[in-house]
Amino acid sequence: MIPGTGSPTAVRSYVTANKPNPSALAEGLWVLPPDVLSSGDRAVLFDQYKLYVAEAERLSVRRTLTSAFLLVLNVGLLVAGTALVASSPERPWIFTVALIAALGSCLGWFWIIRSYRQMASGKYSVISHLEKQLPAAPGVAEWSAVGLGRDSSRYLPMSNVEVWAPALFGFCHVATYALLYLP
């Protein structure tokens, strides 16, 4: 809940249509109006900014570690499923259960990537709003310099590539099943 609103639905207004809502974000971000901040308040603001940038970096590291774990898990499931077929070719139901588990892990992986992407989008929106009150806005400048992630020749956001990994592994799981069990 946003302080002072008294409404739990106000939280949902921060993100609409998978994009941060700048006016709701600015309204919920500031406890004091930014134009009345003293020099001491600005020092605190800078410390909060540094803390928030560090949190965004930690989120990125967690996202990378989670994706690496799920990548290894899916490779392991492919290997284990193939080993199941080699040890029990007359019992396809065992591999069917493994296939369902593998597809479930792919679906979960996709939702985790999506969740991390949304959280990162929110964090970087807050960072850009905080930068508006600082002497320089390096994050906004960097994002502009790489074409806002819209020009893949300048910058291809990792999340645009990362989101295809679960689908690729899902295809590999189904293809392995089809090659081994379907006539």
SSE arrangement:
Layout: H1 9-12, E1 15-16, E2 19-20, H2 22-29, H3 39-87, H4 92-131, H5 138-145, H6 158-162, H7 164-181
Antiparallel strand pairs: 1-2
Q: Helix proportion of residues, in percent? A: over 70%
The low-confidence runs, each spanning 5 or more residues with pLDDT under 50, are: 1-17
Strand content: under 5%
> How many strands, what sense, and barrel or not for the largest sheet?
2 strands, antiparallel
Strands across the major sheet, in which order?
Answer: 1-2
The quaternary state of the protein chains shown equals: single chain
Count of distinct structural domains: 1
* Gross morphology: elongated
**Tally of extended strands?**
2
Tell me the structural class. Answer: mainly alpha
Overall pLDDT level: 80
Secondary-structure element string: HEEHHHHHH
Could you give the distance between the termini? 56 Å
The radius of gyration is 23 Å
- Total helical elements: 7
Q: Can you offer a commentary on this structure?
A:
With 183 residues, the protein is mainly α. It has one domain (38-181). It contains 7 helices and 2 strands, in the order H-E-E-H-H-H-H-H-H. It has helices spanning 9-12, 22-29, 39-87, 92-131, 138-145, 158-162, 164-181, and strands at residues 15-16, 19-20. The chain has a two-stranded antiparallel ribbon. Strand 1 and strand 2 form a beta hairpin. Helix 3 (39-87) runs antiparallel to helix 4 (92-131) and helix 4 (92-131) runs antiparallel to helix 7 (164-181).
